[in-house]
Amino acid sequence: MSMSFEKYMVDMVQPMRDDLTRIGIEELRTPDEVAAKLTDSKGTALVVVNSVCGCAAGQCRPGVAQALQHDITPDHLYTVFAGQDKEATAKAREFFAPYPPSSPSIALMKDGELVHFIERHQIENRSAADIAADLTSAFERFCR
Question: Entry's InterPro entries (predicted)?
Answer without folding.
Answer: BrxB/BrxA (IPR009474)
